[in-house]
Write a structure and sequence with these properties.
The chain is an all-alpha fold. The protein has a domain of 173 residues: Tetratricopeptide repeat domain (Serine Threonine Protein Phosphatase 5, Tetratricopeptide repeat), CATH 1.25.40. Helices cover 68% and strands 0% of the residues. α3 runs antiparallel to α4 and α13 runs antiparallel to α14.
C-alpha cells in the first residue's frame, strides 16, 4: 500500500507535483512579479471567472476589443490592459485611476487597480481594495477572494488562503476553479481528509476536469486509499491518456504490487510526455524511479 512519504527518509520519493503548491518567494522576487502579472492579465479580462482549472490562461481573450464604441472610461480601461501586458504597471495604474474617476462603479477597473497596487509594492492599499470588493456579492466578489487567497499564499498565511477560497465559493458556488484551488491549498497543508470532499464537489460540477481527478487521486494516495486513487488516475487518463502525473502515480502503484513490466510501461509514457512538454526536472525524476525497478 502506498502511504504518506516520510520527511526524514533519505530515499523519500518526491511527488510528481511536489513544489507546485509550495509558498512562493517574497513580493520583491521575480517569480512573484510574474505570477502577479498573470493575475493582472486575468483580472483585466472581460470575464469574471475565478480562473481556469488547468492553470492556464489565454491572454488573447483579455485583449478582445469591444464591439461597441467605448466610452472614455472604457477606453482608458482597455488601454490599461495593453499597459499591463507590456508590464508598464505605473501607466496601468494611471489609466485605471482615470477610469474610476470617470466611472466610480467600474468594478473590473477597481479590482484590477488592487492587483496593480500590489505589483507596485503598495500591498496594504491593494489588499484593502480587494477586501472591499470581496464584501460585495456575485462573481466579482468571488474573484476578489481568489486574489486575496493568492496573496495569503504568497505571504505564507495558509488559514487565510482557505478562508478566502471558502468565502469565494459561498458567493459563487458553481466556480469549479475556486473549489480545486481550495482543495490544493488543503492538500499542501497536509489536510488530505478535508481535501477529498472539496475535489469531489468540483468533479460533480465538472466531471471532465482531469486535473481535479489527479488531485483527488493524490489525496487518496496520501490517505493510503490506493484502490480509490487508482480509479481517479484512470479517470484522468480517460480524459488525457498521456497525462504525466496520472501515469506516474499508476506506475508507482504497479511497482508496489510487483508488476514491474506494467510499471515500466507507465513510467515510459510519463517520460515521453515529460520530454514532449520539456519538463526536464520531472523527466529526470521519472527516469530515476524507473531505473530503480
Amino acid at each position: 500500500m502506498i502511504g504518506p512519504p516520510t520527511q526524514n527518509h533519505r530515499t523519500r520519493r518526491q511527488s510528481p507535483d511536489e513544489g507546485v503548491h509550495a509558498r512562493p518567494q517574497s513580493w520583491a522576487g521575480r517569480p512573484n512579479r510574474l505570477r502577479l502579472l498573470a493575475l493582472l492579465l486575468f483580472t483585466l479580462g472581460l470575464g469574471v471567472s475565478a480562473g481556469p482549472v488547468e492553470g492556464e490562461m489565454d491572454p488573447e481573450s483579455a485583449l478582445s476589443p469591444s464591439v461597441e464604441s467605448p466610452s472614455e472610461a472604457e477606453r482608458l480601461y482597455q488601454a490599461s490592459i495593453v499597459s499591463g501586458n507590456q508590464r508598464d504597471f505605473a501607466k496601468a495604474r494611471e489609466q485605471l485611476e482615470g477610469t474610476l474617476r470617470l466611472e466610480p462603479d467600474h468594478l473590473q477597473a477597481d479590482l484590477a487597480l488592487g492587483v496593480v497596487l500590489m505589483v507596485l509594492g503598495e500591498k496594504e492599499a491593494g489588499q484593502a481594495r480587494l477586501e472591499r470588493i470581496g464584501r460585495l456579492s456575485g462573481p466579482i466578489a468571488s474573484k476578489a477572494h481568489s486574489l486575496l487567497a493568492n496573496q495569503a499564499s504568497i505571504d505564507g498565511r495558509p488559514e487565510d488562503v482557505v478562508k478566502h477560497y471558502v468565502q469565494g465559493i459561498e458567493l459563487f458556488p458553481d466556480e469549479v476553479a475556486m473549489r480545486v484551488n481550495l482543495g490544493r491549498s488543503l492538500f499542501s497543508q497536509g489536510r488530505f481528509e478535508e481535501a477529498v470532499p472539496v475535489f469531489e464537489a468540483a468533479l460533480v460540477l465538472r466531471p471532465d476536469a482531469k486535473a481535479a481527478w489527479v488531485d483527488l487521486g493524490r489525496s487518496f494516495v496520501r490517505l493510503g486509499r490506493t484502490a480509490d486513487a487508482e480509479v481517479c488516475f484512470q479517470r484522468a487518463l480517460a480524459l488525457e491518456n498521456r497525462n504525466i502525473s496520472a501515469n506516474w502515480y499508476l506506475a508507482r502503484i504497479e511497482a508496489e504490487r510487483g508488476e514491474k513490466e506494467k510499471a515500466n510501461a507507465l513510467y515510459e509514457v510519463a517520460a515521453e510526455s515529460a520530454t514532449r512538454l520539456r519538463k526536464k526536472d520531472m523527466l529526470m525524476r521519472i527516469r530515476l524511479e524507473q531505473n530503480s525497478l
